[in-house]
Design a protein that fits this description.
30% of the residues lie in helices and 31% in strands. The chain has 383 residues and is of the alpha+beta class. Helix 4 packs antiparallel against helix 5 and helix 6 runs antiparallel to helix 9.
Length: 383
């Protein structure tokens, strides 16, 4: 799925759209025991409940691909009998009406999901009539081409509200506030099946994690049966290692700066083109990027072997995970310098009195802890 298709599904989670038929839930305590299970027709809920649930479901499909959302393809073995994809298909086709399937699903989550406190598993059955599109690309809501039948799972922490004082309008007094258990925004979830090219794709799912670095490998493998994707931090570390190992002694400031400038230009161009798919860098894209950044040809002779050794099974890297167009930083053990990426030319390395130094060009304005300080007079100028 791409960001436009995700946005299309998110828009359906509104009370007036009525795409959700059934909602099921399982409340699990810190001891991994089921304290409550329920199943209910979604439209039988109160307006306030529907509104709050829809907010949870929208948040389960929020964030950016490669950081919070991942397209997951099922391995062939998981599409065979007894595989995870077959189980999820049975669960979807049952419209969440079979208790054995629901209990089996809850057990899979509880067995593999690592969380030390209470949480709520939510599962919805939904159907979306995908509108057809006219030749001018406008949606025709009375001409549905496909029916997209899907499940959405959301896992929400349940925490005790904070203690304190509150105003009681009944007694007209300030009293101790009653603490209760509050369902918070989701931290994990998935959409199955995916919607690709505005059609059902039973070979894929979309996984959500609020915290990009906490993907939970066992949960993904047990519930979805898909290999763990590389996290945003993992991709960034892989790219940095690839640069260092490939360039070796030639890994100087100017080359690394040029490579990141080239990468930022690629991201700017990608945004200007309004591409729906994220910018992925394959092996040859990264080699070309290093060439354009000024990497010596002799350093690139063993690039392919280095890439295969460093990246492992990860054949491509998400550009937004390895570059930050809004930040350019230089670090030493004791000093951190943050520069506007568009003005990275203000910093250079220089050998002064036999010591490697960073030289920063400054204008007449310098602040130290918020205090404007005077700069040294330029050579030839008067005090």
């Amino acid at each position: 799925m791409n960001k436009k298709e995700i946005a299309e599904i998110r828009k359906q989670f509104k009370p007036e759209n009525a795409v959700i038929s059934n909602i099921c839930g399982c409340y699990v305590d810190a001891e991994k025991e089921k304290k409550l299970t329920f199943r209910q027709a979604f439209l039988s809920l109160s307006e306030e409940e529907v509104f709050k649930y829809c907010d949870i479901f929208r948040r389960t499909l929020s964030g950016t691909f490669g950081k919070n959302l991942w397209n997951m393809e099922f391995p062939l073995e998981q599409e065979q009998p007894e595989g995870t994809q077959e189980f999820l298909l049975k669960l979807r086709d049952s419209a969440l009406a079979e208790d054995d399937l629901l209990e089996g699903f809850y057990d899979k989550v509880i067995e593999s999901y690592v969380y030390p406190e209470n949480y709520l598993i939510l599962l919805i059955d939904a159907t979306y009539d995908i509108p057809g599109k006219a030749s001018d690309n406008l949606e025709m809501f009375d001409a549905s081409d496909n029916v997209y039948h899907f499940l959405l799972c959301s896992i929400c922490p349940v925490n005790l509200s904070k203690g304190g004082l509150c105003y009681n309008p009944v007694s007209n007094a300030i009293e101790e506030r009653v603490r209760d258990w509050v369902v918070e925004i989701p931290v994990k979830g998935f959409l199955f099946p995916a919607m690709t090219d505005r059609d059902t794709d039973i070979h894929s799912a979309v996984y959500f994690s609020k915290k990009p670095e906490e993907l939970q490998e066992e949960f993904i493998e047990t519930v979805l049966g898909c290999p763990l994707p590389m996290s945003a931090a993992g991709q960034r570390e892989t790219f940095n290692t690839l640069l260092a190992d490939t360039l070796g002694d030639q890994c100087g400031y100017e080359v690394v700066k040029n490579i990141h400038e080239e990468l930022n230009e690629m991201l700017d161009e990608h945004d200007r083109m309004e591409e729906l798919e994220p910018l992925m860098l394959e092996k040859q894209d990264i080699r070309r990027l290093m060439e354009q950044g000024g990497a010596p040809e002799e350093s690139l002779e063993c690039f392919e072997e280095t890439f295969d050794a460093v990246s492992g099974e990860q054949s491509s890297l998400l550009a937004t995970n390895i570059a930050n167009p809004k930040k350019f930083s230089i670090q030493t053990p004791d000093v951190v310098v943050t520069v506007n990426p568009e003005r990275a030319d203000l910093v250079e390395t220089r050998l002064i009195d036999g010591k490697q130094c960073l030289l920063i060009t400054v204008d007449d304005h310098i602040e130290v802890n918020g205090v404007n300080v005077r700069t040294l007079p330029r050579q030839g100028s008067e005090e």
